[in-house]
Amino acid sequence: MTILNQILDHKKTELEKLKGQTPLFNLDKKKRPSLYDTLIHADHLQVIAEMKRASPSKGDIAAYVNPVEQASHYESAGAACISVLTETKYFKGSYEDLNAVAKAVVIPVLCKDFIIDEVQIDYAKAAGASVILLIVAALSDEELARLHTYATNHDLEVLVEVHDTEELERALAINARIIGVNNRNLKTFEVDLKQTKTVARAFNRPDVAFISESGIWNEADAALVASYGAKGILVGESLMRSNNIIAALQALQVELKAGEVR
Ligand SMILES: O=P(O)(O)OC[C@@H](O)[C@@H](O)c1c[nH]c2ccccc12
């Protein structure tokens, strides 16, 4: 069984618990900027910086880091959005982490989880997210369309994650406005930045905000995916391990040149 299937099986067991409770978080509702608008109008590569304590492929990365401090560094270094892992068993995240970050920053906040049910979207919103992730590989076409509509109707933006050109077609079919290609295959854990190139070449839609996710360590990686057409990048581990978060994040914000070679 692939790791993605293991995570999804575990998720199903948690749904009943979520459905039996009401999400109660303390939050003053903030109007956050639109991630889509930020990406579409970008003149330099936009960074979605991730709060990631651990992962199934790497184990502990920074298990005990303070999410508010981490997110505040990200925000002051010019991040476009903060991604917060809320999956608990494999990534050691929580809705409490998300809520703490949402209270501390004014930029968009992405709830990073394996969403398979509306109740998770309710929790993400209640905890303060303005963006959610939907993973095409984890959902049927019907589920993808239904959850995408549900989130949009609740004033959330949606990052739709794909791995390859077949999944890209499925994302385009539901009119996804923000599409991310995950350079890490969630079935094998292999990371290849060229996935960004392959997917970028398969479509020409300037109205879609296209981002590259995972495996970005330095300015050269950032410049490479920008040259493939990415307007933004989703970066976790390299920032979590950095001992100079601000400098590391600033270095990734490379200039976007008009008419990049794709
Ligand atoms: O730590 P990295 O290699 O910079 O990757 C960040 C992010 O892309 C990764 O955490 C991620 C992308 N899609 C996901 C889906 C679920 C969990 C995690 C992810």
Outline of the structure:
It is built from eleven helices and ten strands. With 262 residues, it is α/β, with parallel strands linked by helices. The structure holds indole-3-glycerol phosphate (IGP).
Tally of individual domains: 1
Q: At the first level of CATH, what is the class?
A: Alpha Beta
Rg, Å, rounded? 17 Å
The CATH topology is given as: TIM Barrel
Main sheet characteristics: 8 strands, parallel, barrel
Strand content: 15-25%
Low-confidence stretches: none
Number of strands: 10
Features:
262 residues, alpha/beta, TIM Barrel, 8-stranded parallel β-barrel, two-stranded antiparallel sheet, 11 helices, 40% helix, 17% strand, globular, binds indole-3-glycerol phosphate, indole-3-glycerol-phosphate synthase activity
